[in-house]
Amino acid sequence: MNPAFAEPTGYMNYLKRVGALAILSAGALYVIVSGGFDLSVGSLMTLTVIGSSMLASNDPNSTYWIIPLMLGIGAVVGLINELVVSNLKVPSLIATLGMMISLNGVAFMWSGGAPRGYLPDTFRFFGRYNIPDVPLIGILPVAVICLAAFGLVLWWGMHRTNYGRMLHAVGDNPQAARLAGVPVKSVRISAFVISSLTAVLAGVILGGRAGVSVDIGSGFELQAITAAVIGGAQLLGGRGSVPATIAGALALEAIFTLLNLLGLAQPIRLVVQGLILIGAVAFATYQRKRVGR
Amino acid sequence: MSGTPVIEMRNITKSFPGVKALRGVSFACGRGEVHALCGENGAGKSTLIKILSGVYKPNEGEVLIDGNVQHFTHPQHALLAGISVIYQEFSLLPERTVAQNLFLGREPRKNGLIDNRAMVEETRRVLGLFGVRHKIEPDTLVADLDVASQQMVEIAKAISLNAKVIVMDEPTAALNESECEVLFSLVDQLRASGTAIIYITHRMREVTRLADRVTVIKDGEATASFDHVPAPEVIVRAMVGRDIAEFYPEPAKPEDIGRTVLKVEKGSNYALREIDLELRAGEIVGFAGLQGAGRTALAMAIFGAVPFTGGAITFDGRSRTFSNPRDAIRAGIGMLSGDRKASGLVLMQSVRDNGMLTSRSFANAVGSAAANQFVDQAGMTALLDEMRVKAPSYDQEMRFLSGGNQQKAIVARWLALKPKLLIFIEPTRGIDVDAKASIYHLMRDLARAGTAVMMVSSDLPEILGASDRILVMREGTIVGEFDRSASEADLMLAATGEVEGAAA
Amino acid sequence: MSDYLQNFCPVHSKPQREDDLKKTFATLAILGMMPGLALAQAPNFDDPAEFGKQREQLAASFNGPADQRYLQYAGDAMVDTAQFKKEGPWTVCFSNAGVNNPWRVVGYTDMTEEVKLHPEIGTFTHVDAEGSDDKQIADIDDLLAGGNCDALIVSPYSTAALTPAVEKACAAGLPVIVFDRGVTTDCPVTFVHPVGGYGFGIQAADHIIANVPAGGKVLMLRILPGVDVLETRASGARNMFKDAGLTILGEEFTDGDNAKTKSIVEDYLQRGAIDAVWMDAGATAVAAVEAFEDSGFDVPVVPGEDQQDYLQKWRDLGFKGVAPTYPTYQWRTAIVAAVNTLKGEQVPGPEWVLPQPVITEDVLDQYINEKMPPLHYAMCGCEDMPGYPEAWGGSK
Amino acid sequence: MTDTSLATPRRRFRFDRNASAILLIAAVLIYLGLVLALGQTRFLTLENVIAILTRSITLGITAIGQTFAILVASIDLSVASVISAAAVVTSVVMNGNPAMMLPAIAAVLVMGAVIGLINGLVIARLEVNPLIATLGMSLIIQGILSYFYNNFAGNVPAEFQVFAYGTIGVVPYSLIFMFALAGLAWFVLRFTRFGSDIYSVGGNQDAARLAGIKTVRVVVGAHILCSLCAAIAGIYLASRLRSGAPWIGAEGVYDLESIAVVVIGGTVLAGGRGGVWGTMAGVIIFSLIDSIFNVAGVDAFVKQVLRGIIIVAAVAFYAARSQRPVA
């Protein structure tokens, strides 16, 4: 029915398209596993794109310092998120909601409401460029390489390190983790920082793919949570898998693409997304109860 | 007693994954009867009560009220049938007033609206039964009450239901002597008015004082039933099922006890005052006292979880301050918290991950697998094997294991670090008897290997059986020191403050 | 295991749960049917008379100074405003639907710069409804209650919703100027707007029809459904394509999102050739062009709007572009209308229809200014203002 | 030992119980200070006070419902979609015909109750996390709604606009209605067993169950009330806007804002503590903030930054004192 998936180039385009969301979801998963929410990631993506366009002033060489600078801003945002949560005892849902609103405002303030510069091609390289004429797969988008690389790093961090196990423990039972000697605060800080850093990376890739616009990241925070939930992550912490979350992001985008190809309108997409969301969680809960708790 | 019992349970069987909690237990209680239900921690008493109150459904057997078979599927059904339970864990809502808690879910109504005045008056009346000394205002928030008062509110709640059957699950755990007396006279009044009372305790004193009949539960079975109150030794033997001597390992010999590991001088914080103590290598020190006496607070303070704000700590010969658990762990202290589910286990993680949690916390964060000296997967597997943790696989999630196996896995967590001082809080709560014995032996083995062991327990036989030395706490400070030859009565008197304990 | 489950959820026996699910689905179905009751109520966005009128206006000549488009007006109906004449300094209040997109940002800058040209305006009070009708109504209430306004300018978020609030302001004796979207009352002094949505659709569709052979395939990209200005653009173009014998591949909504636009165009490209992409607003035009570029296709006929990034892309790639406009200079005109009203001078009305020029290849270079931000709208009519170009984010 | 241990403890001043009042007073003082400092005393007229209070009636009605959901330790993200759906159904069913006013209101209330019922059942029976359940519900409602409508649809008769625009003297009916609704909610929470059960279930679901409370019913009931309030807010909005469109709920961000004002009003997200008057204080604080921004002429973007910070700061104002760890 759909030639887009019938040939390798189609697959590559699809992976390229989903790259930003997949990386973002895998990073957001760190906060979810640690027992919190990060609603600020979408607005951080917007800030990354708008801020970069403001700073770049069309200079192709600026990319090399802009991306590290943006990562630095991201780290600060993640740090503030966590400090507000743990020091001011504000639930992360509210803390990151406030951060989301504020960051959107900052992005607007910075640009005066409309971005004032282009993203140079060196910046857009990551989200836009395809390596042509690759055997077997036809093209190899740089975004796909980024997805593979960051996905691997995030997988390793979550599932192959002491840190990853501590993260699970903190989300599972913070009190028990603290009494077992887990440095709860630094584990949480790093989760929020990782989430923010991946949001910046996702922003770079999305900005590369789509160019500058003022609300480029809006809605991504909920999509990221949806992807994690589809991937079986437990909200409020303690369980989650990076590969499954990336698969969740791929599934989400595939479903949307499919609905698009079937000619089903946006409203149907919403309904389907809603049903998937409830269904996935209800099923997971049922499964867990079936095996006893 | 004559005629149909008010409440009868026949052949109750109940299993949980990995545990058969109850096997064919039968039990009955008539009007105006106080029936003591005795048994060790983990024997199955609480499970039985939860079946009676409609929280659990039995796999087999039936519950009869006034001779009619009942099928409770919700606690409300049991309440409507006239069964009221005072649970061991408080089921009060801290943010609501005493009166609101007393009438939780059954507020008196006038014209369809809650009759606040009637509620307050009835509350005042019921609380009046405790006498003027224990005055609790109906509109106080429960959060503002101390532990003993909260226990009184729990009791008042059950009484105010005018139930046919009242179940009291260790109601005196937080009460001092005079408060206990108030409770006992209440029980007498209730008995006189024809209420059936199921009284759960392992304090022989209370059995002797109150009971008309006694049933002993051991390992999920009703092992003995008496229509009179036998001598305490008889009950204890039925509860434990073997000689105490076998059950508890040999105490330390004087030569086993070594240098001082921990010394606290004038330790204090919001819950503690004037704490002076020494813990020595090779010695198990039991800490007895009522709930809220400061035993757990002391453990938390030594462990750095809720640090001392005054006084001095010398650990391992050096002056130290532990401002968080990491400091204490790094110095060589471990702690098994009393409420495993709330503060010990990470239930969704594997048995192995639970065991390695502390090791990993002190290892390189990105270090992984066997390469790291702190995170010795093979070593943990061996340790878990050695402790005979029963699990289909060590990759099984922790929540599927029984209480005893969960506790062993946490012990393994600390053993991996070879601590100099290991603190056990209520080490055998919710654990079956076999596992209990192995925990005691484990503690002793640790002590023999030169570890100082601190054990906080509310279970006096356990304190007397497993400790080398016993410290009794009351109102945030240490009020007495005993050796293991002391009697339960000695400890109780010191704990409740009726007599200052003599230094041993 | 299964009896274990039963014990832990004694309340939910299985058949009951299935019942619940059935109930759930039944109610969902009912929920779905309810809005369907009056489906035939959609507002009319396909009005041949209005279409014809706008087509004429596009070609008509406008009154007013030839070099200042923002002062020009169609027709010669004027309103007398003597009753509002007042000595300065005035307080001019402005209830803004929002500044949440670049078009509105450029327009609002036009407006504030225009205010600076009128020393008689002592205070210019701006309240921003942040894209909410509810809030805009409250804002107007605030202005009426404590704003001391001498004149009120309203850029309504929704036509119908803001009508009562505007009526209230009129009733309070204030001269009200409405621009961009209108209201359904004629109580304002005048309603400032360019030719209109049909006109925008016509300009792009004319270009496509002229450059695509009969039977050619057109993809229609739209921002979102329901906005009257955008709906008229689409309906006008749709009719013209049908009459010209072009095939419409589909109508897709992009939410104004570049990434989504790119995905949609890529998906269509996988299925076959596209001869033209029609768009109801130019914000995503560059993304559509890039979708062709990145997939290795030649860029076909892709109209956009007067934003700098599109104009430059058009020039650089040399495809067949055209830029219909919805000029931002109407924001200046609103101030001018307010000032003239307070001076008691005649103002074009009850509708002040502004010209709506189209940028074609011949005049493309006039509008390109690389010193301006990429999302700047070239048809701002602001080049003569003292603050230009810095106030708009450009550099000299 | 004497009998001190059981004496009634002294009544502590419970900061967290009065914090919403303190915040409200602070906001009023800031407003007064600003108005006086700018010499703009014209903002102190009765009309202006009423204009401020009337700003957030949609939010206020929604937040009253949200209070129930949060008190029972749940949350409802679907209110914005319910508002849109209710407004559209109101205006479509009425369609300018005064005779259809009552059927329209009845239809909308039924719809609200059904949505609340489904939310409640999915949360309490299927045990789906309330955030996910109501987010999913929100998407579903929004999808169904925008499938049928893509613009303002129908219109309400002039008689019905009295609800939003009619006044007694200078006081709008709608303002009276909102406070009456808040009073009713307070009454339910304070004087009915259902209200008491809400606090119990929110405070500790297990304890409530042990006390014989049918917790599922209580959760479902709270969600029905929450959705009903959102539906009423939608009816009000239809009256105010003359018509309903599928985006008006989302454009007002009533979902997140209603949660924010409830939390600012001192109801804890974990449930079991708080009340409806705190929520009303939160609503007025939000209105005041808007007005302060308007008076001070704060730039729209700066406004947004400040709003985010204020939400967090207000919640921190209570929460920082609590010892409970949060995540």
From the structure above, extract its key features:
heterotetramer, B: 504 residues, alpha/beta, Rossmann fold, 3 domains, 6-stranded mixed β-sheet, 18 helices, 22 strands, 33% helix, C: 396 residues, 2 domains, 6-stranded parallel β-sheet, 3-stranded parallel β-sheet, 13 helices, 42% helix, globular, disordered N terminus
Characterization of this structure:
The complex is a heterotetramer of chains A (293), B (504), C (396) and D (327). Chain A has twelve helices and two strands; from the N terminus they run αααααββααααααα. Chain A has helices spanning 8-33, 41-56, 63-87, 92-111, 121-128, 142-159, 162-172, 174-179, 184-210, 220-230, 242-261, 266-290, and strands at residues 130-134, 138-141. Chain A is 73% helix and 3% strand. By secondary structure, chain A is mainly alpha-helical. Chain B folds into three domains: 7-246, Rossmann fold (3-Layer(aba) Sandwich); 258-332 and 419-498, P-loop containing nucleotide triphosphate hydrolases (Rossmann fold, 3-Layer(aba) Sandwich), CATH 3.40.50.300; 350-363 and 373-418. Chain B has helices at residues 45-52, 75-80, 98-102, 116-128, 147-160, 177-192, 204-210, 232-240, 244-247, 295-302, 325-331, 340-343, 351-361, 377-386, 403-415, 433-448, 460-466, 488-496; strands at 7-16, 19-29, 34-38, 60-65, 68-70, 83-86, 109-110, 113-114, 165-169, 196-200, 213-218, 221-226, 260-269, 272-280, 284-289, 310-315, 318-320, 333-336, 421-425, 452-456, 469-474, 477-483. The radius of gyration of chain B is 24 Å and the shape is globular. The two termini of chain B are 46 Å apart. In chain C, the strands form four sheets. Chain C has a six-stranded parallel beta sheet with strand order 3-2-4-5-6-12, sandwiched between helices. In chain C, strands 8-7-9 form a three-stranded parallel beta sheet, sandwiched between helices. The longest helix of chain C has 20 residues, at 14-33. Chain D has a domain at 57-278. Chain D is 72% helix and 1% strand. Chain D is built from 15 helices and two strands. In chain D, helix 4 (79-94) packs antiparallel against helix 5 (101-124), helix 4 (79-94) runs parallel beside helix 6 (130-148) and helix 4 (79-94) packs across helix 11. Classes of the chains: A mainly alpha (293), B alpha/beta (504), C alpha/beta (396), D mainly alpha (327). At the C-D interface, helix 2, strand 3, helix 5 and helix 6 of C face helix 2, helix 4, helix 5, helix 6 and helix 11 of D.
